[in-house]
Specification:
globular; about 775 residues; eight-stranded parallel beta sheet; single chain; alpha/beta
Length: about 775
């Protein structure tokens, strides 16, 4: 029987949240009890059906061209559940057959009373967060293909043969952490041999259901930043795909390797029986120097050329993308076109943006436009370049127009950058700053929050009314001032030592600044998934950046006028503004970061002049942008640290500069964080149960630090005893004189009831530990 051909054009995944965030609304309605499970299932099925119809409309009509990349919460969690990787601490959510239903899935994702959820961290170098599987030697792997088979059958009933997508076994284990019951020295990848038969069973069940191709994502092969080294990951991939490829009952296997080049990994996969190999040719490189055995092996396979950027929203150089794909012709038995990664990282459809400047819009491509680009290039491969010449020419003309447009290059911004000297990147020594900051009068173990307080429905309605003209500036300001005063008074009542104004005026920690800086644009419907049901709307950084006027000073000064306690000025750092925007791709990231750094430097100076003595410049994305290839990391760390220092080095010694990092795997970038030279660094630590303090102790980190004691990404309220236990772990590693007490992150996504309860416990735990230290 002839094997089914791989589709001529495809994507690795599609946004699953819906054009108007239908998935978010359905899931959150279910959590709130406004709909039942049947209605949740109806809505999610309707969303999947609409997605399939749209992708067919855009040109993905071949069998298996449409990936089933749906997940109600997270694709890593979905794969973990499909292979039975449920930690023992969640054994109670398993059914008699070992499967986990959607309610159990949400317990793992969000936790429950007395049980924290799975840890969450960044998915490679993206702003997507995945749930970290917990693996032990005794993890009872078992195949649970029901959801995969049900979704496949759902599409088949509509006449569409989809391509089920799973995280591959090597990446699943490489991203996992040892469960608490695992013995010292155990590494999740040690469990590979036990896991492979379970993947084989999943493949067999999908083949029985009628699936002709299955996609297994192995981005671990593109990374040199994981605990497992590249050599061991390649060895694991060789073993995994030798076993899975040899399985008797299975669909054809497409192994995708997004987020970078895989180098020697191509030869490894070529030597296995898999039928198709996907290469990221946006972040990666064209294969070269292949030996005769690899070339011979590739002759029987399909190479899937990921030449359409799945990570950014620029229309790009379509002609160059086509040339990269054509350069692979003859290297393999057949060639297909694809996106470089899943399109989950970009918004749905540019056509939804009616307020964007038409000239700017002509330079862009969202998910639907990228699908159309894939279809165009696939047609070019099939019928020759002349068949798509007009599309290539249109994209090239847009590139030329973009390069010459006003605002893309601003001489005054570039002249200011050129005039910088080394002195603009350095503050006085830390010890001298500590002495100068003693008059802040802070207690031992000072308590604070990270910045934002809950965003109420009233605040969101006020912003919408202001935007529509139903509310004037004076009315809006009155609402914001009232909320700031409420937040300040609440913090005083709770007993926090350093206050924040709560950021009620900010729609988003990046978009707020993007709307006030030159060189940015914002979208109406450009939502992408951050984690679970949480979505973000990245701004578009398209031109040279400058600050036409102060952005935060008025609100911070007003809040400070309400209290005798110190109030933090709150800014988003240059690296995070880049990471959480769709940033221009026509110049080095470091150049753009320095432009943003200069704008923030001006803001820091104005906050100081307004009497703000503590200024926090958040950099939660510092680890996120770290290149996956080690050779590229030193240059990144140099410019990212430099941009932060440029933003903060103008501060006086008596001004205490804070920064914040969340889900950043502190130990990986400890030297860079030391290089930031912030007086105080707060960092996520609650879900990992203070693992970060061990890194702190080993590294000799000697600045102020606030490892988080309250996980804000879950609705559960930690008890005072739980918070105190975390604090005691921190005090055992970090001198109390340098330790701060704070949540993991901002409180914007939480409700006031849980926030007040959690902060009450935080303050109580801090007082208890202070008293214990005083007693000796």
């Amino acid at each position: 029987m002839t094997a089914p051909a791989f589709p001529a054009g495809t994507i690795l995944g599609y946004p699953r949240i819906g054009r108007r965030r239908e998935l978010k609304r359905a899931v959150e309605a279910y959590w709130a009890g406004r709909i039942d499970r049947a209605e949740l299932e109806r809505r999610t099925a309707e969303l999947r059906s609409a997605t399939r119809a749209r992708l067919i409309e855009l040109g993905l009509g071949d069998d298996s061209a449409i990936p089933d990349s749906f997940a109600a919460y997270d694709q890593v969690l979905d794969t973990a559940l499909a292979v039975g990787a449920v930690p023992e601490r969640f054994a109670h959510v398993r059914a008699a057959d070992g499967s986990v239903d959607v309610d159990g899935e949400f317990v793992l994702a969000r936790g429950e009373a007395g049980q924290p959820p799975l840890e969450m961290t960044k998915w490679f170098d993206t702003n997507y967060h995945y749930l970290v599987p917990e693996i032990a030697p005794g993890t009872a792997f078992a195949a649970h293909p029901e959801r995969l088979v049900t979704r496949f059958a759902e599409a088949l009933a509509e006449g569409t043969i989809t391509r089920p997508v799973l995280v591959g076994p090597v990446t699943l284990l490489a991203l996992a952490k040892p469960a608490t019951e695992a013995p010292a020295g155990f590494r999740p990848l040690d469990a590979l041999e036990r896991l492979l038969p379970v993947y084989a069973e999943l493949l067999a069940r999908l083949a029985e259901a009628g699936a002709t191709w299955v996609q297994l994502d192995e981005p671990a092969l593109a990374s040199e930043s994981l605990d497992e080294g590249p050599a061991r990951l390649r060895e694991a991939a060789a073993r995994a795909y030798a076993v899975l490829g040899a399985a008797e009952r299975r669909p054809e296997l497409f192994v995708a390797t997004p987020y970078g080049g895989i180098g020697e990994g191509l030869a490894v996969l070529a030597a296995t029986p898999v039928e198709a190999i996907g290469l990221d040719l946006v972040r990666g490189e064209l294969p070269s120097g292949l030996d005769d055995a690899t070339r011979a092996a590739l002759a029987g396979k399909t190479l899937v050329a990921g030449v359409i950027d799945g990570r950014n929203i620029w229309r790009g150089d379509l002609a160059a993308a086509f040339d990269r794909a054509v350069a692979l012709e003859g290297l393999a038995g057949s060639l297909a076109i694809a996106s470089s990664t899943s399109l989950q990282h970009v918004p749905h459809d540019l056509a939804d943006e009616q307020r964007l400047d038409p000239r700017l819009a002509s330079w862009l491509a969202f998910a639907d436009q990228k699908v159309a680009q894939v279809a165009t290039l696939a047609r070019g491969l099939a019928h020759g370049r002349q068949a798509i010449e007009s599309e290539l020419a249109d994209a090239s003309a847009a590139l030329v127009d973009r390069a010459g447009a006003p605002g893309v290059r601003v001489p005054a911004v570039r002249e200011r950058l050129a005039a910088l000297s080394d002195a603009d990147f350095a503050r006085v020594d830390y010890d001298a700053r500590v002495e100068a900051q003693l008059d802040l009068g802070l207690p031992e173990l000072p308590t604070t929050t990270i910045g934002s307080f809950p965003q109420t429905g009233e605040l969101r309605r006020a912003r919408a009314a202001l935007a529509s003209g139903e509310l004037d500036d004076a009315g809006y300001r009155a609402i914001i001032e009232q909320e700031i005063e409420r937040v300040v008074r609440l913090q005083e009542e709770l007993g926090l030592d350093v206050l924040v104004h709560g950021e009620p005026e900010r729609n988003d920690m990046v978009q707020y600044f993007a709307e006030l800086l030159d060189g940015f644009a914002v979208t109406e419907h450009g939502w992408v998934q951050s984690y679970g049901s949480r979505c973000t709307r990245p701004s578009i950084l398209w031109g040279d950046v400058s600050r036409p006027a102060p952005m935060t000073v008025g609100w911070s000064a007003y809040a400070q006028s309400l209290t005798e306690r110190h109030l933090k000025g709150m800014l988003t750092g240059p690296v995070t503004i880049l990471a959480w925007s769709f940033v221009r791709d026509d110049q080095p990231l470091g150049d753009t970061a320095r432009q943003v750094g200069l704008a923030l430097r001006d803001e820091v100076a104005d906050l100081e002049a307004a009497g703000i003595r503590i200024i926090q410049v958040d950099e939660p994305a510092l680890r996120e942008l770290l290149p996956l290839r080690r050779a590229e990391q030193p240059a990144y760390l140099d410019w990212s640290v430099g941009a932060f220092r440029l933003a903060t080095a103008g501060a006086a010694p008596a001004t205490q500069v804070h920064t914040h990092l969340c889900y950043s795997e502190f130990g990986v970038v400890i030297d860079a964080i030391r290089g930031l030279d912030a007086d105080v660094t707060s960092i996520e630590a609650a879900r990992s149960r203070m693992e970060v303090v061990e890194d702190l102790g080993r590294s000799g980190f000697d600045h102020g630090v606030g490892p988080g004691v309250y996980d804000i990404h879950s609705p559960r309220v930690p008890g005072e005893d739980e918070v105190r236990e975390l604090l005691e772990r921190a005090v055992a590693e970090v001198p109390a004189s340098r330790l701060w007490v704070n949540p993991d992150c901002g409180l914007k996504t939480r409700g006031y009831d849980e926030t007040v309860a959690s902060l009450t416990h935080l303050v109580g735990a801090a007082r208890s530990v202070r008293e214990s230290l005083a007693r000796g």
